[in-house]
Amino acid sequence: MGSRAFGLATRSSDTDRRGVYVAPTPLFWRLDKPPAHVDGPAPEQFSWELERLCELALRANPTVLECLHSPLVERADEVGRELLALRGAFLSRHAHRTFAKYAEGQYRRLAAHRRERGEVRWKQAMHLVRLLLSCRDLLRTGELSVDAGAHRERLLAVRRGEVPWDEVAAWIARLHEETEAAAARTPLPAEPDRARVEDFLVRVRRAYV
Predict the structure, then answer these.
(1) Is the pLDDT of residue 7 over 90?
(2) Higher pLDDT, 177 or 11
(3) N or C: lower Cβ tally within 10 Å for the chain?
């Protein structure tokens, strides 16, 4: 994930990895349940238990949806490959609300920091623009692409602080307007395909008894 998946990596970029694991089904029969997520063991590594990931993705969590659509997959077993093939079932118009809400929160924090400290967190500004580009295009096409390579040079210029804040703010405002327009005629379904996801999860649970 991160800049490498987004097509925005530089020589100094970290390698952020996200994973999904399946806890053995009998562990859920106990009072103490298996962990819903695990940090590590490597730096910049985080994993979700399959059911937790499905819950978040069905709610259109931006981080999880982008993880499922990363163009860089280092390892996937049979269950992982089926999960990746299922990723379209998680997409719905709820993404408009969740992506926009996340972007609004990021913008408020950016603006507050600039107002209080007199400086701009340019890396955060770059990723905010990237998120809005991803959301707009998802609503326009019904497909989620996290690779922002087409906008790489301009986005990296934002990260380096080479684009004036007023210009960045105008870009954000324009993307917000374009996102709202796309939401009005998006091909995305109103709801995700919960039944298809649940069928997958139940089959995995049975296989891991």
Answers:
(1) no
(2) 177
(3) C
